[in-house]
Amino acid sequence: MTSSYADLNRPPLHVAGLRRALITPDSLWQRLDVVQSTGSTNADLRGAALSGAVSGTVLVAEEQTAGRGRLQRTWSAPARSSLTMSVLLRPPSPSATPPGWLPLLAALAIDDALRTFELSNTAVKWPNDVMVGEGKIAGVLSERVDTDGSAAVIIGMGINVSMRLDERPTPAATSLAILGEMADREVLLKAVLRALSERYLQFTSGEIEELRRTYLERSATIGQQVRIDLPDGETLTGRATDLDHSGALVVHDGVQRHLVAAADVTHLRSTS
What we know:
The chain has 272 residues and is of the alpha+beta class. The protein has two domains: 15-218, BirA Bifunctional Protein, domain 2; 225-269, Roll (SH3 type barrels). 24% of the residues lie in helices and 30% in strands. It has helices spanning 15-22, 41-50, 101-115, 185-204, 208-218; strands at 31-35, 57-61, 67-68, 74-75, 82-89, 122-125, 129-132, 135-147, 150-160, 225-229, 235-243, 249-252, 257-260, 264-269. A seven-stranded mixed β-sheet has the order 1-2-5-9-8-7-6, with helices on both faces. Residues 1-5 have low confidence and may be disordered.
């Protein structure tokens, strides 16, 4: 029998089984689709949100051809070598649930899932990366979409699974395969979405201090000397010292304390 896919080490996802496991009456997740190829799952869900898609919609792509990271960076990976997906949520908006936490809790959820593979040195890098040692294994991109009657948030996630050394988009990237882990993408997908459901429940229940405490425990950024590239083109250098209630990074430049809500962060040196 001829296989429908060329690389037996990169089998396709089976949507029926994933739906049975994840789409239940009491689940956060209410719809899940898998597409073979798309430009960007975030862009696709943005359109779906504007058309009234329900909270808890999940879109997974076997291949993304125009994936984006922060600051409009492009992101690409060989087909089925990564877990690339976006989720659509319509969160409440009281002050007890500051929206700046959404990309942070998504990174925590990915970290939760990766820890089930017994990786010992995972960490979250503010605001949107998950690291294993010095290598970036996953990234998060969240976007707000204003729709009739409510605001939706799309959280895009990319996790490197079977990517080889010669396939890395940058030398800083790593993957489960490079780390010696042979991961099943379906197992990983279920672990990520279940962890994200739990972290989102903390968020909507107002358990921000618990999220903050966990993030600080797992942070690769807090305590580091950092360079902050701000959206307006300005640069700030100092020590990352804390997160505030909103999820903003607290940076002290030696003279004064700054709150950074959105930026690109470079770790300049270890302070341990």
